[in-house]
Design brief:
Largest sheet of chain A: 6 strands, mixed
Order of helices and strands of chain B: EEEEEEEEEEE
Number of strands of chain A: 11
Oligomer: heterodimer
Strand content of chain A: over 45%
Order of helices and strands of chain A: EEEEEEEEEEE
Strand content of chain B: over 45%
Number of helices of chain A: 0
Largest sheet of chain B: 7 strands, mixed
Number of strands of chain B: 11
Shape of chain B: globular
Number of helices of chain B: 0
Distance between the termini of chain B: 38 Å
Largest interface: A-B, 26 and 26 residues
Radius of gyration of chain A: 13 Å
Helix content of chain A: under 10%
Amino acid sequence: SQQGEEDPQALSIQEGENATMNCSYKTSINNLQWYRQNSGRGLVHLILIRSNEREKHSGRLRVTLDTSKKSSSLLITASRAADTASYFCATAGFQKLVFGTGTRLLVSP
Amino acid sequence: SQTIHQWPATLVQPVGSPLSLECTVEGTSNPNLYWYRQAAGRGLQLLFYSVGIGQISSEVPQNLSASRPQDRQFILSSKKLLLSDSGFYLCAWSVQGGGTDTQYFGPGTRLTVL
């Protein structure tokens, strides 16, 4: 069964706007990761946040983690057309990751 | 630097035919290796993972199998394909002992079973 559930399933914004995606999960985790997938390609790791961290930044990406609510959010600031992709959260248990169903982000010029 | 290769990139096979997908990793030793399947517009389903040569863990009972004949080679096989085997197959690796840390994905194989 899938651990992470992203919300929304699809998001359409204009260039320059911010995009926020949410991920909820059900059980205890070691860490939570976000990945990006361009259409028809493999996944690319974006950022990892450990269970004892609350917020992490990487360039235009900001990730938060609330273990009490079992949720995480990914914020992409000042979005660009090149950010168009699917974004997945993945929760880390023992020896493996469990991926959610993803958010499809469309950034229009 | 580390690289991961998958082939073929695309494959169209008839129902009942055999399957062999290959994944190789370069630039690292003794990696954890993973096979995932992604249905159209869906998330990733973990099929198999391996922490060493000959060590395979199966996540989902099905007509697929995996083997790891060499340290950096991971093979996904089937004796007889089903229509439901269609999908996008992704191989990934992570640092040994880091099964819950970053995974690095290959470019994938698009399999269509007709």
